[in-house]
Amino acid sequence: MANNHRRKLFTTRRSLIGGISAGVLVAGALTTTSMMSPASAAEWPTPSDDRRISETQEISGEVDGGMVRYIGEGDLGDGGQDEGQPPMFKLADGATLKNVILGAPAADGIHCSGSCTLENVWWEDVGEDAATFRGGNGATFQVIGGGARKAEDKVLQHNGGGTLKVRGFAVEDFGKLYRSCGNCSTQYERHVELDTIEVTAPGKDIVGINENFGDTARLRNITVKGDGDRRIRPCVRWQGKEGGGEPTESGSGPDGRHCLYSEGDISYE
């Protein structure tokens, strides 16, 4: 292929490891219907095996990883925060990746070229970002279950248009759980819906959106742990830029138009 970082290893409804079909979940994996309660820090999954990769793995169709932990090396193994790193996995439009653990280093995590579903995917030590969502205004992205920790900056990066729906997800030790791109060359109206999320301090912001581009964020059933001073901000609004430049912060908290939640939607433990 022209891009030597990528190779097509997986096809529709094939497992990443032999003998496990896409329709089978290994012991300890969560089913779609049971993912509304995110795992706590003590319940992170144990990998079934470790595999080192040095090239981006391209995914199409539906792929079950059998809870294998993938560790980057070579071009995927820097472990830094530099922009422009290749992803460990690149999902085609409409693809589903489930039951995978990303170890460290993890480069730029997962890229979705269009609509995609990430189900029971775990990031043990987020690299540049955990997942980046691309595609046009009609794209729909789902993150069901799973979790991420040790993210110096962003966990879920939304660069394309459309709507990202996250439910049953756990995050800890992070900068921002979700960020609508503040200065992409092409900007979109973006929407995010968070439901049943466990947030464990330290952390900075749960959501960051661009109000000048019409973004919205809906937050429901958010539990924040270990943040007695309530320093983690649930929703921050920005004035985004198009084609470069630094976005500027314009406000935070529920406003009935962009940050859509009430006091009762956020609980503290």
Explained architecture:
Its main location: secreted. Its cofactor is Ca(2+). The protein is an all-beta fold and 269 residues long. The protein folds into two domains: 103 residues, Pectate Lyase C-like (3 Solenoid); 132 residues, Single-stranded right-handed beta-helix, Pectin lyase-like (Pectate Lyase C-like, 3 Solenoid), CATH 2.160.20.10. 0% of the residues lie in helices and 47% in strands. It contains no helices and 19 strands. It has a 19-stranded mixed β-sheet that branches. Strand 16 and strand 17 form a beta hairpin. It is globular and about 45 Å long. It starts with 5 loop residues before the first strand and ends with a strand. The N terminus is likely disordered.
* Poorly predicted sequence stretches spanning 5 or more consecutive residues: 1-35
Rg over C-alpha atoms, rounded to the nearest angstrom = 17 Å
Report the principal-axis shape.
Answer: globular
Mean pLDDT: 88
Classification by helices and strands: mainly beta
Helix content: under 10%
What is the fold's blueprint, element by element?
Blueprint: E1 6-7, E2 49-53, E3 56-59, E4 62-72, E5 89-91, E6 95-102, E7 110-112, E8 116-123, E9 131-133, E10 140-144, E11 147-158, E12 162-180, E13 190-200, E14 205-210, E15 216-225, E16 233-239, E17 248-252, E18 259-260, E19 266-268
Parallel strand pairs: 1-3, 2-4, 3-5, 4-6, 5-7, 6-8, 7-9, 8-10, 8-11, 9-11, 10-12, 11-12, 12-13, 12-14, 13-15, 14-16, 15-18, 15-19
Antiparallel strand pairs: 16-17
